[in-house]
């Protein structure tokens, strides 16, 4: 959910009239988007001296939050954008993104340009982007963006628009977005926060597609359903819904009691890949 035609996240200063940081955030989101916010948690505090100060003037401390909302037709003025517009290298649902070839080539050139740190830079690129057989780790979204920033491959780091990878954002907002993606991808593996984004009733296919969209990965259908059933996260509603013109699929709902039952043990959502 963005403002300024997709170039910024909803934000604003903490003011004396705000009772808490969270209430202040909710007020700014409501004012700027007229859209309610559901699940909310503090994400990270950004205060780097060399980031976005020329744009905003002076030393800026940004306290970010991760909020989950359902997109509603006609609700407010937010601009909805897929986060893969900003991070196209993160979407592996259709296989390895073509943009990774360009990223790898440019990171190799960046690493080779500094003989003293060449080996270390190559190792970081290999680890973060799953090169040389290392495997792709969806949780490293922030580390990948930070490496591209350090290498001068994103507009926020001062490179030209023609050299920028992904869609740029105002000041440090794309960095904050990358932090939110990394947090949410990690969180859906041990807490059922994905249900904050689901309607009251849903098919298992829709649930799977939602998790895939968050993780940027394709999941094995049978393994996914088996793990969901084993953890008793959902229960049947008794209704059905037609999907893709085929046989009607059962409708499920989230078992809210699972939050209490799994408070100590934790609840894992499956991210086993095809």
From TrEMBL:
It comes from the Bacteria. InterPro entries: NMN_biosyn, NUDIX_hydrolase-like_dom_sf, WH-like_DNA-bd_sf, WH_DNA-bd_sf, WHD_NrtR. Transmembrane segments: none annotated. Residues 194-254 form the NrtR DNA-binding winged helix domain. Gene3D superfamilies: Nucleoside Triphosphate Pyrophosphohydrolase, Winged helix-like DNA-binding domain superfamily/Winged helix DNA-binding domain. Signal peptide: none annotated. The keyword Plastid does not apply. Keywords: Plasmid. This is Hypothetical conserved protein.
């Amino acid at each position: 959910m963005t403002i300024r035609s997709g170039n910024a996240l909803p934000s604003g200063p903490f003011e004396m009239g705000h009772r808490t940081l969270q209430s202040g955030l909710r007020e700014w989101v409501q004012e700027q988007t007229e859209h309610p916010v559901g699940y909310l948690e503090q994400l990270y505090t950004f205060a780097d001296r060399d980031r976005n100060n020329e744009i905003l003037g002076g030393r800026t401390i940004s306290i970010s939050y991760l909020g989950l909302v359902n997109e509603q037709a006609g609700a407010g003025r937010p601009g909805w954008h897929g986060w893969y517009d900003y991070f196209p290298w993160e979407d592996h649902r259709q296989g390895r993104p073509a943009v990774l070839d360009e990223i790898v080539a440019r990171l190799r050139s960046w690493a080779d340009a500094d003989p003293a740190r060449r080996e270390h830079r190559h190792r970081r690129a290999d680890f973060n982007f799953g090169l040389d057989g290392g495997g792709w780790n969806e949780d490293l979204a922030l580390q990948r963006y930070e490496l591209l920033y350090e290498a001068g491959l994103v507009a926020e780091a001062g490179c030209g628009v023609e050299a920028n990878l992904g869609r740029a954002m105002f000041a440090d907002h794309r960095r904050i977005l990358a932090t939110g993606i990394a947090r949410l991808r990690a969180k859906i593996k041990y807490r059922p926060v994905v249900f904050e984004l689901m309607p009251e009733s849903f098919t298992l296919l829709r649930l799977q597609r939602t998790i895939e969209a968050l993780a940027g990965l394709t999941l094995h259908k049978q393994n996914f359903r088996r793990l969901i059933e084993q953890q008793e996260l959902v229960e049947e509603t008794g209704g059905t819904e037609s999907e893709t013109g085929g046989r009607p699929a059962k409708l499920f709902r989230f078992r809210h009691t699972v939050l209490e039952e799994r408070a100590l043990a934790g609840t894992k959502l499956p991210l086993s890949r095809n």
